[in-house]
Every structure is written in C-alpha cells, then in structure tokens.
Amino acid sequence: MLLARQGHRVLVVDRATFPSDTISTHFIQQAGLSRLKEWGLLDRLLDTGVPPIRTLNFAYTGIDLSGFADPIDGLTEAYAPRRTVLDKILVDAARDAGAEVIEDFAVEELVFDEHGRAAGIRGKAGGEEGLKEFRGSFVVGADGRNSKVADLVRAEFYDVVPAACFVYYSYFSGIEWEFHHQTDFHHQQIGTWPTNDGLMLCAVMRKKDRFREFRANAEENFHSIYDAIVPELGQDLRDNGKREEQLRPMLYPDNYRRRSSGPGWALVGDAGYHKDPFTGLGITDALKYTELLAERLHEGLAGERPIDEAVAEYVRLRDEDSRGSYALTCSISELELTPYFDSVFRATSMSEGFKRRFFTMLGGGIHGDEFFAVDQLEKLYEEVDFPAEKRILSPG
Questions:
Q1: CATH class for domain 2-26+82-160+254-331?
Q2: Mean per-residue pLDDT for 118-142?
C-alpha cells in the first residue's frame, strides 16, 4: 500500500483469501493505531464496531497495575480487532492504492539473476497446474513465522531466546469485561480483550512443560485457570459465557531475529523478527517497521541511494529501536519476574504518575530506555519511599 501510494508498481501475493483468520494476538497499541490513522485507515477499522479499550488491568505475581497511557498522537484508546477484519482492511487498502493483489497464491521458489540477486518469485495459484513466474526489482517476505522467503534465502537466526509458554484461546459471547492481563504465582495467566461482534477474546497461558497435561482436558483446564486467578471472572465465564468458536492452541515458537536483508530481498513482520505476544507489541511493531522498510525501499527505488544499503539500514534501525522491548518481553513472558523487574513494577504500582508512564511506554509514547533510565527509577523510588534495600536500578 505504502509503496503503491508513492507510484511504484507493486505485486502482492498471499496463500490466503480474504477475509481470512490466523492464529494471532489482536491488541494494537496506540503507536500502531497512529500508523493506521496516518494512512487513513483508522476510521475504516472503527466503522467495524470494534470496541475501544481505555483501561488496562495488569496483575503480575501480586503486583497490580491498572490504568492507561497518556494520549499518544491524540489517541486515548486501544483496540483489539479480529484479524479477519484488520487484514482485509489492509489488503483492500493496498488494492485501492494501485497494488495488484493475487490471493490463493503459494510461493514455492525465488528467482535469482546471474549475480545471485533476488529477482522474482515462482508459485502456484489455487487450482492451477504448473508454476507462474513474476519478476521484479525487489522481493519482500512478509509471510510470517514460517516464512518461505526466509527459508529460500537461508536467512540465519540470531538473538534467539527459547519460548517459555503455550496459549489456548477462543471467543465468547455473553460476557462484558475490560482488558485483563493477570498472572499468578503458579506460572499461569489469563488475558481478555473485547473484540468485534460483541465477542470477548479469552486466553490462558501456561509453561510449555504443562502442555500435554493441559490438552488432555483443555476445556476444564481453561476454565480452572480463570477460577484460580480471578474467581469472579471464572464464575461469570461459566455461568454466562458461550464459547462461539473452537479452543485454539498456540505453542509459541522461540523468540528470534532473522537476517532480514540481502541482495534484492528483505523480511518484515514475524518473518524477520518475532517475540512472545505477552506484551501485545506484535501488530504495532509490524506496522511501524513495515513503514520504515517502505521508506527505505522508496529511497532505493527512486534512485536516491543504493537500495540494498537503504534496506540494510532498515534492519539496523529496527533492531536498535526494538532492543529494549524485545528484552522486556522475553523476560516477563517467563511468567515470573526477575528481582529487577519486580522492584521496578512494584514501585510503579505505588505511583499514579509512573503507572501512566508505564502504560505510555507500552503504548509507544515514550521509549523503554526513557522509562527505565536510572535517573527516572531513582525518582520513582524516592517518590514512593521504596525500601532502600529493595531498590534495583539496572537488570545486571
């Protein structure tokens, strides 16, 4: 969409046909919504009736953090749309911008020129025999965690952190809850997000070593975690909730980065950078770094600088910008807090101002380096009169 709007000739292929669902988190932080607003797509999203989220209820091993971010780019709420809704909006916007979109097309090979540079794709359109070939000046793999493009260019993994948990989730009618993200002392968590069509997305999370035991009686185990963490929600779910779709398991892949640029090709979204969905940053980061990639591709395609050099800069900036949020996500998705994060979050829970800063950081209004800066933590500890022996200023 972004490249087509700048006058470039763009082909988009996807194995899916839209609207299409996918196993995914739903939450879009304010920084992600800001990109949709800038691109003229936020109103399309709101027209689908997705409910606003204006209070975030976090509880983590006895630490309660509830509130919301300060306005970010004028946005005072977050949203958790179904992917059937969001993805179709984006695909339609790409078509509206002039991109050619071919659905039900599976890429099987990349085309390389005599210098080893990516120069196109080959694949199968649904129901057709043989491979179709398309050539172009650059190939982008935006094809998710199991990226075919990444495999074909043999993109190496780095910064790999083993995944800790699994998730089961589904959609329920008959309940009206706020956003909840609550973890107890037994390495289990619940998450709730109001989404489209009057439904509540309900999820539970546990450590991977409990997966086989859990799936043996998934329905009852799902409810028992709600009963244990927030009994009143558990009772409401049993009494009034009606599960409208199947329970879906999601065994997390490891957290990783992959080499995301090379001669004539780039990776974006989960194809090149994936982290646990615990912090709800996946869609927002995909939108932010897609825009960054589009800007660098435009510079190269417009002849302003060598395109491979421009795209390599996209990867460097992505990795620098996401370093802190990646480390935070990998740490707290273990369902227990390090002494450092326990100290910081416990003190934060005692200050209304710092709670807003915390949610503003998650929403993308301030960078994590600013929130966790030593001088800011010193100010926090002093403000709430935190015990000196429990003050920790750095994760090391």
A1: alpha beta
A2: 94
